[in-house]
Write a structure and sequence with these properties.
It is built from 14 helices and 4 strands. By secondary structure, the protein is mostly helical.
Length: about 290
């Protein structure tokens, strides 16, 4: 039996939902966990996933965690519609794309989400309730990033990093597509696309995508092809209908600031901006670029 623990508006869970559709795997049991109600922090779920994050896959009692690994596993257990190249070298190159999305793009979309729509939600909480929420987090790095983005908004150094990381990613995608290939790995649609799709859809939902896509026609066309995949629509990738207006509203509030910071980053002032944000909190104790 195949079981998936997920939250429908989780960008990582959307990777798995897309993979299930691409592989035409329909015999699976859904377990929905509402993240903002803390259902991922119950003792029962923490036994499955000690980090308290989604998604988690349970296959005949055996646990598979981390969304990219789950997607890879689903491709392995079903021969239909392969999502990995046949050649070992190409598979390694595909996994480099996925690792980059995990190392940089995931945190980047998280930072921009918490500097906008989630910031608005968190600041509506009482200080006591907000403190209790942070205290319940199981991964220190993630909690520190989220706290910084909520407290400092666009001035968080994590936001500076996010803006720079997205620019680097889109530049790389534009360059790779310059040889005329339709997908990142060539003619084959792969897990590389799936692992990026929900992250990009969240940024699009925040009305921030054009900041990076302007002047990059190949990347724009690639994104349009990706959105046209049936798995994208069926899995409802991106902010839900109920929340899209909220994402658009809160994202629009920071769009100008993101664009202005991107100009500074491209001019080589990214580190200076990040250090200035740290000094605003810690004062002159932070050393580095004046």
């Amino acid at each position: 039996m195949l079981e998936i623990y997920y939250y429908e508006n989780s960008i990582c869970a959307e990777r798995v939902l897309m993979t299930l559709r691409e592989k035409d795997i329909r015999d699976w049991v859904p377990h929905h966990l509402h993240l903002f109600k803390g259902e991922h922090f119950t003792p029962e779920y923490l036994r499955l996933n000690p980090k308290g994050v989604v998604p988690t896959l349970v296959h005949d009692g055996e646990i598979v965690r981390e969304s990219a690994i789950i997607c890879d596993y689903l491709d392995d257990i079903s021969t239909a519609n392969p999502l990995k190249p046949q050649l070992a070298l190409k598979r390694a190159q595909m996994r480099e794309w996925i690792k980059d999305s995990d190392d940089y793009t995931f945190e980047s979309v998280g930072s921009l989400s918490f500097a906008s729509v989630f910031r608005a939600r968190m600041l509506e909480m009482s200080p006591e309730k907000r403190a209790a929420h942070w205290a319940s987090q199981r991964v220190l790095d993630r909690a520190l990033r989220q706290i910084s983005c909520v407290e400092l908004g666009l001035d968080s150094p994590y936001v500076t990093r996010a803006i720079a990381s997205w620019d680097r990613t889109w530049k790389y995608i534009e360059n790779v597509l310059a040889d005329g290939r339709p997908w990142l790995m060539g003619e084959q649609f792969t897990l590389a696309e799936i692992c990026y799709a929900p992250f990009i859809a969240r940024i699009e939902g925040l009305k921030l995508l054009e900041v990076w896509l302007e002047g990059r026609p190949l990347a724009q066309a690639w994104w349009k092809r990706l959105m046209q995949r049936p798995s994208f629509a069926i899995s409802q990738v991106g902010p839900s209908k109920d929340e899209r207006a909220i994402y658009e509203r809160e994202g629009s509030k920071i769009a100008r600031g993101v664009a202005e910071r991107l100009v500074s980053i491209r001019a080589g002032r990214g580190l200076e901006m990040a250090l200035a944000a740290l000094r605003s909190v810690y004062g002159s104790q932070v050393q580095g670029v004046p």
